[in-house]
């Protein structure tokens, strides 16, 4: 069993239409990867800095932030 959590295709199909598309500025990171990482943090209680690298960098840019800029 993998220690990583990934959104399945059905969950991603429900979320993806609500995310911004074709925004100007810096290239966005992979939304599915970041959201899977956020859910991993919520599920395991670990800090983002302690997440496996597969979910993205330990300090995601503000363009990847769901809540908006810090």
From TrEMBL:
InterPro entries xref list: IS402-like_dom (IPR025161), Transposase_6_like (IPR052909)
Domain of life the protein comes from: Bacteria
Positions of the Insertion element IS402-like domain: 7-58
Transmembrane segments: none
PANTHER family xref list: BLL5188 PROTEIN, TIS1421-TRANSPOSASE PROTEIN A
Name under which the protein is recorded: Putative transposase of IS4/5 family
Naturally occurring in which organism (per UniProt): Consotaella salsifontis
